[in-house]
Amino acid sequence: MGFExxxxxxxxxxxALRMLLPASILILSGIAAVVRHIRxxxxxxxxxxxxxxxxxxxxxxxxxxFRHVLPAAANxxxxxxxxxxxxxxxxxxxxxxxxxxxxLGPLILEATLSRDSYLVIGxxxxxxxxxxxxxxIADLMLLACDPRIRTGGQDAN
Length: 157
What we know:
The chain is mainly α. The protein has helices at 8-46, 49-56, 61-99, 104-113, 117-145, 147-150.
């Protein structure tokens, strides 16, 4: 039975199964940096005076962690997200070539080897657009999560 003979859901399942290895490689390669940043941010927030004061007032550790510490520690992780999108695209180029997945990576590699400058420039512009879009999404997420950014730093008169 070939790919063309599969149902629509069968084609989706086949593609998902074939994307399992490349997606796992990309996720596992980037997760360590994100976890280290989140850990450092949480440890820094746990040492803040307002957290110690809240703990002294008798707030439960779970409420303290989820209500006060994690929202304060989310800023660096959200900012790292914007750069992770661009790194994900550049990392996917290598992973696609190694795993044989037909995507942007083999296309840009073949264009580079055949000196197709327009296609290479288009690929670079595409990755730059991904970086700008990732940073824009990260800024929107920071705007939604951090009340200090929403106020815009205006003085209360």
